[in-house]
Amino acid sequence: MKKLLLMIVALVICAGAYAQIESPVRWSYAAKKLNSKEAIVFLKATIQPGWHIYSLNVGDGGPIKTSFEFAPSKLYATNGKTAEPTPISKFEKAFNMNVSYFEKEVVFQQKISLKSAAATNVTGKLTYMTCNDKKCLPPEDVDFTIPLGK
Q: Which of 92, 122, 134, 150 is deepest in the core (most CB within 10 A)?
């Protein structure tokens, strides 16, 4: 009986080792100071072939749009809305509507007003949803910290 139980536990552990969490999007960040009062932060999504993430502008009833929430700070403030390049727009049967999305890679940009020379990082959280032609993964939240440099 002990051998049977041990064998079942070993099989469960081995099966779990083969289960992989799909993560078709990798995020990277950069910033550029324009002057002592302004900077731009860049949030880049590198997307595996066959997958896509959605635009900042998706209509109601559609997929979860990509969004950025910048942490409030006494040292900096966002200046305007987050910018994105022109997305691909296509009718998706799953949502029964036209949706805008990005494939391969996309760089989002946010202007930052610097309130103090002590501002060294911009922090926040991004939310996105990724799909391919067969399935969508649950929305994911990613915390970020972007060094402002000098």
A: 122
Q: What is the pTM of this model?
A: 0.83
CB 45 within 8 A of CB 26: yes
| Amino acid, single-letter form, for residue 10 | A
Sorted by where each starts, the structural domains of the chain and their CATH numbers stand as 23-147 (2.60.40.1250)
Burial (CB < 10 A; 0-12, 13-18, 19+), residue 1, is exposed
